[in-house]
């Protein structure tokens, strides 16, 4: 059973931590599109940092990986459940780079 959009949003938001604002929209192909924006960066800056990735589970993974790197690079003192996956996210990034060669 496919989880509802609202349930996916809640799950992603709880993983992403308190700085994240997660929105899920549907694209023309009825796929989930994840947008994660950073409330800390949008407070200081006109253009909020955000990551936008289409696709259901792959989209979730790609958006969350970018969010993990953003937290790691810009908000080191922040705690978020997703940071537990930093190592896995770095590994995926490494594999994508290897695959592009
Ligand atoms: Zn930020």
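Q: What amino acid sequence fits the structure above?
A:
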């Amino acid at each position: 059973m496919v989880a509802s959009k609202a349930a996916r949003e809640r799950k992603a938001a709880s993983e992403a931590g308190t700085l994240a604002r997660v929105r899920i929209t549907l694209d023309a192909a009825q796929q989930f599109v994840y947008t994660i924006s950073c409330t800390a960066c949008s407070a200081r800056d006109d253009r909020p940092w955000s990551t936008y990735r289409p696709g259901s589970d792959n989209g979730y993974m790609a958006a969350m990986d970018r969010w993990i790197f953003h937290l790691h690079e810009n908000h080191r003192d922040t705690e978020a459940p997703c940071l537990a996956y930093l190592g896995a996210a770095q590994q995926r990034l490494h594999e994508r780079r290897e695959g592009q060669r």
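Q: And what stands out in the fold?
A: The chain is about 50% helix and 20% strand.
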